[in-house]
Design brief:
By secondary structure, the protein is mostly helical. The protein is built from 5 helices and no strands. The chain has one domain: bsu32300-like (Four Helix Bundle (Hemerythrin (Met), subunit A), Up-down Bundle), CATH 1.20.120.
């Protein structure tokens, strides 16, 4: 594994620990919106970091790079690195990230938390796949 990919996976792991820690803390009512904003940002950077790591993996293995986060994950599936269920969940994470970044819809705190919890469960699987 090249140094750039290793560094990106280390960064992804650090973000995952931050997300997990934030999800485990009880949220006091007066801090709920602040926590929601922190979760939004972590969902955004984790999806982007995972896509960056995926592109680094694709490049290292001579595979086509993605033109977007969604296409990076599709190319990883096509390369046999991601199975279809993980790929489908990553597509959902990309959609959640897009809604957060582009504010397509009013994103509620409960939606953000649900997306963050799912992403937190998927990150270890993504990291393992990219370490091959």
């Amino acid at each position: 594994m090249n140094a750039a990919l290793q560094a990106k996976l280390t960064q992804l792991d650090r973000y995952a620990k931050e997300l997990h820690g934030l999800l485990q803390r009880p949220v006091q009512t007066e801090w709920a919106e602040v926590v929601d904003r922190a979760l939004e940002r972590l969902v955004q950077v984790i999806v982007e970091c995972a896509a960056d790591a995926g592109d680094l993996w694709l490049e290292e293995h001579g595979k086509p790079l993605g033109q977007s986060a969604a296409s990076v994950f599709q190319n990883l599936r096509d390369a046999g690195i991601l199975n279809d269920p993980v790929y489908q969940r990553l597509r959902e994470h990309v959609r959640a990230r897009n809604q957060i970044v582009h504010n397509y819809d009013r994103v509620t705190g409960s939606t953000v938390r649900r997306n963050a919890e799912r992403l937190s469960q998927d990150i270890p699987e993504i990291v393992r796949a990219l370490m091959t």
